[in-house]
Amino acid sequence: xxxxxxxxxxLLRSHPLVREVFAKHGMGCIGCMGAAxxxxxxxxxxxxISVEALLKxxxxxxxxx
Length: 65
What we know:
The longest helix is centred in the last third of the chain and has 13 residues, at 51-63. The protein contains four helices and no strands. The chain is mostly helical and 65 residues long.
């Protein structure tokens, strides 16, 4: 389960398809230097995105597999 403490970089490595969700929200996490150290919560806050909504989408995508 993906939580607000999950590292963006870790998530991108383990579930490459999450790029779709990040891109949908205008989060350029793939090439961002901050992705190496930031959590989902920090990234959401930086982009003014609801962390709860983002987590819901990310978990739904990862659970479809």
